Amino acid sequence: MTIEAIQEDLIDEFSMFEDWEERYQYMIDLGKTLPLIDEQYKTQDNIIKGCQSKVWVHAEMKDDKVVFTADSDAIITKGIIAILIRVFSNQEPKDIIAADTDFIDAIGLKEHLSPTRANGLVSMIKQLKMYAIAYQTQLN
Amino acid sequence: MFNVETIRKDFPILKRQVNGKSLVYFDNAATSQTPQQVIDVIVDYYTNYNANIHRGVHTLSQEATDLYEQARLKIQKHFNAKASHEIIMTSGTTHGINLVASGFTALLNEGDEIIVSALEHHSNIVPWQMLCERTGAILKIIPMNDEGELLMSSYTDILSEKTKLVFVNHISNALGTINPIKVIIEKAHAVGAAVLIDGAQACPHVRPDVQALDVDFYVASAHKMCGPTGVGMLYGKEEWLKKLPPYQGGGEMIAEVTFQNTTYADLPHKFEAGTPNICGGIAFGAAIDYMNAIGFDKIAAYEHELLDYATTELLKIEGLKIYGTAKEKTSVISFNLDGIHPYDVGTLLDKMGIAVRTGHHCAQPIMDYFKIPGTIRASFAFYNTKEEIDALVSATKKAQLMLS
């Protein structure tokens, strides 16, 4: 699936929720199902700075696609990570670099996009794109 | 008579809606809200008196200077300083601490010792580490126990003739512990050391008497006591303020300048370089008036009632643990829910209109002591109510349900 198609799916799913409670409950449930990062990658180097909760991200290339795994010690943050991984993992670097992030607003999580908010969603997206840029450079 | 409903009418922000819910503001230890009486003074200043002070012969400048100096007198009276020139206007507590730390560079020698407590805010540790780097002095720490109380016997053990300065907060921001500063000061003086007390968290709840305490330096911020941000005060005993060299160079702090030499102004201006926060200083005075009109005894008694009520009600929640259970504490409750990250709880409480602080509260060493990433901190002011505490309790239960 393309990044755009996945984003469309997410927007559809979130449009079914009537209020913040249902939206957050869904994110919490997503957080609980997030495939965990391999323990060996939970290193200081893989921590994303700027988050009030700890976030680890690991990236590797498989068949010309970037595969992300991640974890956090806070469950709502894990839910956000699960959404990001669904959108950005298993995609080609050039598509990750080109992807926009308007869907965050469309699924009602705009408040998490503010750079002053200490949950680091902005830092996470930046970090995923940085990995994609690094891999793209290798491919070129 | 203390009537919280009447008092609440003074605070326009309390009528605000957040995320569709009535705001419940429980982040008072970070900053307090501002009553209309203080907002009016700020508007009045910019509407009628805005001018630079201490250097104009024109009427506006003199009026502004009078108002600013009246504020200094209010602060002097409030803290019971002997003289108004012992009150230095600052940009806040951190500024006051750095001013003293910088001044002590000239007074310390290698091997001298500075004592700080384990209950300190980051901003209170860094200036002393920097001072130690500059002078070769050694930093010693008064440890705390599981309740969040300082171990006074350890304090006595580390005090010696080498101790030159002791620095402790009056009340801990993370746990609310009220420290026995009178005893701390007496013991420090017995070995000839000076004492600086950080009153940022204490001043919203108590009225410190610097002469009765016999404290050498005391710092506070206006924004934690119903005043604006960016202004605060440093009290220093005259003898100490004369001993310390000026902190920053600039206008206002000089008596005479030639290219060869400068003579410094007398106290307090020696430490007040540049144009100060004039409006903020005047509003600080108004905030002190406002709080004194209600009365600190009544404020403290009511807040204690809120603390007891909140402690009892929160502890009814299964798996809730309170950090900081000192016998003497103010209206701050730091807590966690078993197995749940404080950030998750704080996020959901915000969705329900409740403002609390989550995180390490700039007191990482305290969090390390308890081996936790942080806490949820609810801090109450005299304009909060038991109904708001009920809202916190039910929102916390709901968050727990959603997150389990």
Automatic annotation (TrEMBL), chain A:
Residues 12-130 form the Fe-S metabolism associated domain. SUPFAM superfamilies: SufE/NifU (SSF82649). InterPro entries: Fe-S_metab-assoc_dom (IPR003808). It comes from the Bacteria. PANTHER family: SUFE-LIKE PROTEIN 2, CHLOROPLASTIC, SULFUR ACCEPTOR PROTEIN CSDE. Belongs to the SufE family. This is Cysteine desulfuration protein SufE. It comes from Gelidibacter sediminis. The lineage of its organism: Bacteria, Pseudomonadati, Bacteroidota, Flavobacteriia, Flavobacteriales.
Automatic annotation (TrEMBL), chain B:
Coiled coil: none annotated. InterPro entries: Aminotrans_V_dom (IPR000192), Aminotrans_V_PyrdxlP_BS (IPR020578), Cys_dSase_SufS (IPR010970), Cysteine_dSase (IPR016454), PyrdxlP-dep_Trfase (IPR015424), PyrdxlP-dep_Trfase_major (IPR015421), PyrdxlP-dep_Trfase_small (IPR015422). GO terms for biological process: cysteine metabolic process. Its EC number is 2.8.1.7. Keywords: Lyase, Pyridoxal phosphate, Transferase. It catalyses: (sulfur carrier)-H + L-cysteine = (sulfur carrier)-SH + L-alanine. Residues 24-392 form the Aminotransferase class V domain. GO terms for molecular function: cysteine desulfurase activity; lyase activity; pyridoxal phosphate binding. Its cofactor is pyridoxal 5'-phosphate. The keyword Transferase applies. It holds the Pfam family Aminotran_5. Belongs to the class-V pyridoxal-phosphate-dependent aminotransferase family. Csd subfamily. NCBIfam families: sufS. Catalyzes the removal of elemental sulfur and selenium atoms from L-cysteine, L-cystine, L-selenocysteine, and L-selenocystine to produce L-alanine. This is Cysteine desulfurase.
